[in-house]
Specification:
This protein has 572 residues and is an alpha+beta fold. The chain contains seven helices and 28 strands.
Length: 572
């Protein structure tokens, strides 16, 4: 009876433990849904991040690092939770099997109780051993439950850390947004200040420009008035000298400052006077030295050298002795088309300009060449001062640069309103420059100041300038097929040379005795005008029917004509 009572007590105790264990094992463990898609907190963080600043590299780096760290931790915890859940499921299965075994054992106990009078000790021993096994299994279940609780605590701690991280990110985003708005407001403030300062500067500049323009206009008007007064005084002085019959020495002095007195005074010279000069007739040299059009040709002042420049980037040089032309084998060229060339007054230098924005100064005696490269546009013209100490170069960049021939240094720069096509310098240090806008401008070589501007004479670009031998008049050839002879003292046009059949865009020149003006036509003919009458007195056809681009008349009487095909004709 005591054994039976003990069995009953144990059975009751074990039944309660079994019930508690089954109840505790039936607790539902939440399944992590992170594997099925992105978590909501992550989506929220990313949406807030994109809203704060899509282009912020600092936040992007921070989110990337946080995501990598949190992702690694979550994946590790998920793996631990899955393992724990699998272990719980395994244990639940084992518990269920044990419960099934216990039920089977209880049924056996019941059947044994029914058979107690026969054999009572064997079932009791079996039941006790089974109950001991169940107790061991319950201990394992309790240990697993504690492990699950620890995992849940760790999961809760991680969730709290994630929430704190999200709060920190939100605070940093707000701080960045506030800093961004602050900087934007400062930028707007500075832009407003700059805009106000720019408007103030622009108004100051406009006022200054208008004042300078007014002063320049006033100065031009004063200069024009003075020039007119000076011209009237000179005319009065000439009339006075003629009326009072000054001495021979006085008349010689007056002739030095009155070129072409016949056109200026209005009287007409005799036929013998106007035909005393000789026009070349016979072409004794005809050669082709360039593979493209010749742009310029020039004799030296003592007629012992001759040079040509062409569109083939070459410069050809000859020594001249009477009627003999010996080509100098010199390596003279440029990177691009050579546009102009001239000799110095003492024939010690030759200079040529090119479209490569460079000027070459050649020392003929020492056979040396220097390249001058301060221009920012193609060089269109070169010229020398009367004492050969200065080289002048005009460019399409609207600047005339004055170089020292002794050291090849730029001495000064004259700024023009238009590109300079040709340059001449008189004995009185007056620079005459012909420009693309059709104007002729006179400058003082000593200080670079403008003396006068002759405008309205030609409607197209000036092509060339040719200074008379007495330096008091200059021949200007224009691309409008006309030429004008201008007095550099009074700035008045003495004569205009044109012909109904004549068209040309080439250079022109004066005869050595200042009696004729010569220019080549686009049909390959040379035209000669009488300076005093303004009429065409002769035409020649020394070359093919190609446009004559350049001519020059030497002091020895030789005339050179160069055409667009690279051919050269020397006429005597």
């Amino acid at each position: 009876r005591r054994m039976m009572e003990e069995v009953d007590l144990k059975d009751s105790f074990e039944s309660e433990i079994l019930a508690d264990s089954i109840l505790s094992a039936s607790v539902v463990i939440p399944v992590d849904s992170a594997g099925e898609g992105e978590p909501e907190w992550k989506k929220k963080i990313w949406s807030e991040y994109r809203a704060v600043n899509k282009n912020s590299e600092v936040l992007q780096k921070f989110f990337s690092q946080a995501e990598n760290t949190i992702g690694i931790s979550i994946n590790t915890l998920k793996g631990d939770i899955r393992k724990g859940q699998e272990r719980i499921i395994t244990l639940e299965t084992e518990v269920f099997e044990k419960q099934s075994a216990i039920e089977a054992l209880q049924q056996e106990v019941e059947s044994l109780k029914a058979r107690l009078p026969k054999d009572i000790n064997e079932p009791v021993v079996s039941v006790l051993s089974n109950q001991l096994q169940i107790r061991d299994d319950m201990d394992d279940i309790l240990a697993l439950r504690r492990a699950v609780e620890l995992v849940e605590k760790e999961n809760k701690t991680i969730k709290q850390q994630l929430e704190q991280t999200a709060k920190d990110l939100a605070q940093k985003s707000q701080a960045l947004e506030a800093e961004k708005s602050d900087k934007a407001s400062k930028v707007k403030h500075y832009e407003a200040i700059l805009f106000a300062q720019e408007e103030k500067n622009m108004s100051t500049i406009e006022q200054s420009n208008s004042r300078v323009l007014e002063e320049l206009q006033h100065e031009r008007e004063e200069r024009e008035k003075l020039a007119k007064k000076y011209s009237n005084l000179k005319k009065t002085f000439y009339k006075y000298k003629q009326a009072t019959k000054l001495s021979t020495s006085s008349l010689e002095d007056s002739q030095l400052c009155q070129p072409l007195s016949t056109p200026l005074s209005g009287s007409t010279p005799s036929v013998a006077e106007t035909t005393s000069g000789t026009i070349p007739q016979e072409t004794f040299i005809n050669m082709t030295q360039h593979s493209a059009a010749i742009n310029a040709c020039s004799f030296s002042f003592n007629s012992d050298m001759f040079a040509t420049t062409g569109s083939d980037n070459k410069v050809c040089l000859w020594k001249v002795a009477g009627e003999n032309f010996e080509q100098v084998k010199a390596s003279l060229s440029a990177k691009k088309e050579v546009t102009c060339a001239k000799f110095s007054r003492d024939s010690s230098f030759m200079a040529y300009g090119s479209n490569d924005m460079g000027v070459r100064l050649c020392d003929i005696a020492n056979q040396r060449q220097k390249r001058l490269t301060d221009h920012t546009g193609p060089v269109l013209s070169v010229g020398f001062s009367q004492d050969s100490s200065s080289l002048l170069a005009g460019s399409r960049d609207c600047k005339i640069r004055i170089w020292d021939t002794s050291n090849a240094c730029c001495r000064s720069v004259i700024v023009c309103e238009s590109g300079c096509r040709d340059i001449e310098v008189s004995r009185e240090n007056i620079i005459a420059s012909g420009h693309i806008d059709g104007n002729i401008r006179l400058w003082d070589l000593r200080n670079g100041e403008r003396i006068h501007s002759v405008s309205g004479v030609h409607v197209r670009s000036i092509v060339s300038l040719s200074l008379c031998d007495n330096d008091q008049a200059i021949l200007a050839a224009s691309a409008d097929s006309t030429m004008s002879l201008i007095d550099v003292r009074t700035y008045q046009v003495i004569k205009t040379f044109e012909d109904s059949k004549f068209t040309s865009s080439g250079r022109a020149c004066m005869s050595p005795d200042d009696l004729y003006a010569a220019r080549g036509s686009d049909t390959g003919e040379l035209y000669f005008w009488n300076v005093y009458t303004g009429n065409v007195v002769k035409t020649l056809s020394p070359l093919k029917k190609l446009p004559i681009k350049a001519i020059d008349w030497s002091t020895s009487g030789l005339l050179a004509a160069c055409d667009a095909g690279g051919s050269i004709a020397i006429i005597k």
